Amino acid sequence: xxxxxxxxxxxxxxxxxxxxxxxxxxxxxxxxxxxxxxxxxxxxxxxxxxxxxxxxxxxxxxxxxxxxxxxxxxxxxxxxxxxxxxx
Length: 87
What we know:
Radius of gyration: 12 Å
Largest sheet: 3 strands, parallel
Helix content: 25-40%
Strand order of the largest sheet: 1-2-3
Number of helices: 3
Structural class: alpha/beta
Order of helices and strands: EHEHEH
Number of strands: 3
């Protein structure tokens, strides 16, 4: 099994890199499971939003990990309770 773990996706540039490159990398490298740390993925560089999570899942991310900065975007509080792939 091939697992790809990408640490700390930060802001717009990090999110764009994931969206533009991850799907092809999964295919090229025969990746079976993708984990990203998304706690700093929001535009401001801290926090995470539901929309960003959905974008990540749509391009092949299987699990999103977080940390203390995840709470900087308040809308994530409801989403983290219902999305099992967001840890």
